[in-house]
Amino acid sequence: QQQHPRRPMQAGQAMAGARPVPGGRGGSRVGGPGMAPPMGGVPSPMGRQPKRQPEPVPAPAVPAADAPLTTSELAAMSPEQQKNALGERLFAAIAAIQPDHAAKITGMLLEMDVTETLNLLESPDVLQGKVSEALAVLQAHESDMSKA
């Protein structure tokens, strides 16, 4: 029996005795029952590994909405967590002063710097002044909108 030297297969060539896969894109594709597709082909449903969900990374604990925030707690939070924690506390404080516009005023005051917002929570008089300012801006805006 004479052996022929092996040559690497070129793209588009099929192995001897292999059948082309129906619906293949250009050239012959090797396939058959239980055979793995060539590189870049469609994977066989047999032997699939289920996808694992990544483990959730535990977020740093956010203090309860009624607990006072400290600068060290805020420093440990992402900017989004800072806004959420400040917003929850600010909304509760503003709702006690001006319940009808608490959501809008909270949004307005959250545009301030984090340290200024924290100061509002620590100083009820300062908060009252900012709520009055924000309410005046809202009323002026509503008045302008009704004239237009």
Largest sheet: 2 strands, antiparallel
Tell me the overall shape.
Answer: extended
Compute the number of strand runs. 2
Helix content: 40-55%
Structural class: mainly alpha
The overall average pLDDT, rounded, is: 76
Helix count?
A: 5
Strand content: under 5%
Instruction: State the separation between the terminal residues, measured CA to CA.
Output: 98 Å
Strand order within the widest beta sheet: 1-2
List the helices and strands and how they pair.
Blueprint: E1 19-20, E2 30-31, H1 71-75, H2 79-97, H3 102-109, H4 114-122, H5 124-147
Antiparallel strand pairs: 1-2
Helix pairs in contact: 2-3, 2-4, 4-5
Textual characterization of the structure:
There is one protein chain. The relative contact order is 0.08. With 148 residues, the protein is mainly α. The N and C termini lie far apart (98 Å). The protein has five helices and two strands, in the order E-E-H-H-H-H-H. It is 44% helix and 3% strand. A two-stranded antiparallel ribbon has the order 1-2.
